[in-house]
């Protein structure tokens, strides 16, 4: 769409839209932008496919009555974006310049420019980094109760953390589990009083205070955890069929710090219900903006909105430039 004399010709590729990230938000944005004939460039990033690549069965994404494996869903979304003309590269963005349009985006030595950028870089769940955790991810170790709780009917679970997420996830998991034990490293929760009161009033929820998980036990599936008492230094083993991490998420926004307004927790601030950001022409969608819902389907919905917002923005830009040329 753009043939702009102002474009730095030393930077080889000018695009209408660059989408940074390849989770449900990024690929849905790509599907919509591609179907609007904008030939978007998707830069997939290091963790291509996003957090769904770490899950097994996804049973809450509409349209799959029998469920679908997380990686298979992401592969299908990529194929769908590709089918309509999105160019999808396995590039990890290392630098952006959002100070002026066309914006600059680089992956190492390779650079592009675009008048619209959609940020869909997601968030990364924090993990403990203890033995057994990585090996048993998807086999009882999870960071998403909404995604995986259903698989633990009448099972005993641990939830690690003391914030609102830990309270919410523990409470949610009691719908399935026979017992949920919150393991918290201090003797006081960080979570809001209302969330704590709700969790503690639940007869299925117990708390182990002043403890961290030192190891997750099990060969093919979680069988328990070794806990470290943060006061006495003693270790004990507890039985469990699953361990849910609720120790926070980190939005993947370090690339944009200082160039774009972030909220107090470093998520990209968007002007709800739109996906516009503090920089005109830059849009954001998915978990990189979201401290509340963090679902594949909400990310996909926001990705759709970002593509439509970007399309409208490019149209207006095109009209205003055509008007300026005519007047000149
Ligand atoms: P959070 O508030 O940062 O809490 C993280 C919890 O994990 C803290 O209790 C922390 O312990 C613990 N933790 C962190 N690293 C740990 C480690 N390595 N080992 C053991 N424990 C560790 O995160 P969050 O609960 O995900 O909440 C994030 C934001 O979303 C908050 O603003 C929250 O209010 C909001 N949120 C709101 C709702 C709701 O309103 N419905 C639901 C969920 C989240 P310490 O306390 O000792 O630091």
Annotate the secondary structure layout.
Layout: E1 13-20, H1 24-35, E2 41-43, E3 57-58, E4 68-69, H2 70-83, E5 87-89, E6 95-97, E7 103-107, E8 110-119, E9 123-125, E10 141-142, H3 145-148, E11 156-160, H4 164-173, E12 179-183, H5 193-200, E13 205-208, E14 211-217, E15 224-229, E16 235-239, E17 242-245, E18 249-251, E19 282-284, H6 296-327
Bound molecules: NADP nicotinamide-adenine-dinucleotide phosphate.
Describe the structure.
- The protein is α/β, with parallel strands linked by helices and 328 residues long.
- Helices cover 24% and strands 25% of the residues.
- The protein contains six helices and 19 strands.
- Helix 1 (24-35) packs parallel to helix 6 (296-327).
- Residues 1-9 have low confidence and may be disordered.
- NADP nicotinamide-adenine-dinucleotide phosphate (NAP) is lined by residues 128, 160-166, 168, 185-186, 190, 212, 246-248, 291.
- Residues 128, 160-166, 168, 185-186, 190, 212, 246-248, 291 line the site of NADP nicotinamide-adenine-dinucleotide phosphate.
Share in helix: 10-25%
Mean pLDDT equals 93
Strand % is 25-35%
| Termini gap | 21 Å
Kindly summarize this structure in a few lines:
The chain is an alpha/beta fold. It is 24% helix and 25% strand. Helix 1 runs parallel beside helix 6 and helix 4 packs parallel to helix 5.
Features:
single chain; 328 residues; alpha/beta; seven-stranded mixed beta sheet; five-stranded parallel beta sheet; 6 helices; 19 strands; 24% helix; elongated; disordered N terminus; binds NADP nicotinamide-adenine-dinucleotide phosphate
